[in-house]
From TrEMBL:
Transmembrane segments: none annotated. CDD domains: HTH_XRE. Residues 14-83 form the HTH cro/C1-type domain. The lineage of its organism: Bacteria, Pseudomonadati, Pseudomonadota, Betaproteobacteria, Nitrosomonadales. This is HTH cro/C1-type domain-containing protein. GO terms for molecular function: DNA binding.
Amino acid sequence: MDTRRKELGEFLCALRQRCAPEAFGFPAGSRRRTPGLRREEVAQLAGISPTWYTWIEQGRDVQVSHEVLERLAQALRLTGPERSYLFDMAGRSDPHGVERADENDSAPEALIELLAEFRMPAYILGRYWDVLAWNPLAAALFTGWLDQVTPGALPLPNLLRFVFLDPQARQLVVDWESRARRICAEFRADCRGRLEEPGLQRLIAELQQSSPESEFARYWKLHDVLERQGGERSFRHPRRGLVSYRQFTLSPVGQEHLKLVVLKPLLAQGE
């Protein structure tokens, strides 16, 4: 089965099961064997055939039109990231979305030089969330990880491998479980147009197989989709104690797959 068709079907199924029937005008009732909306109810809301919708969710080889995708997005009340993911998995361009530029997974020298100017932790993520470059303050924050890597050496450090495979991350990141689930959802949204790339499939398979207690596999199966956003990030630093930052994520024009992440200090205890 085609990877995108399979992902599209599983994504719609996950969305459907999260919907409260009463919020969409259907009685909750006690006869429902599973949570959420039934397939025929989604089809009714979207104004399409129940059989056609079932085929889409089953991942069959059917061509889903822009109109049907638009109806499904409206019927299920999708967020912006969820809508973009829906269109990408169907192999369609979202008329309300943004076209992606050609991607080269290397950071411009000017952007790397800019890192040194920041008086706060900053780093650059590539298309698979490899850390392409970072400043000394980021290395000091992520002690035991970035401070142990020589810039430019291969393999590059990877944020997902650190969060899910490195035991130090569970000690460093405050509220690791909720942060890890969100990072998984952000990564799914970010790589939605690249799920068939062999490099990405190898990374996902590695994380699914190697993550302790299968956390990554469990979170990936949820099909959560979230854009990478700012907000407060707290860490238990082994020497500085509890430190908190406001995260900002920026992308250079023409290389939107790159992410410049800056952490502005909010709170530091024990310094």
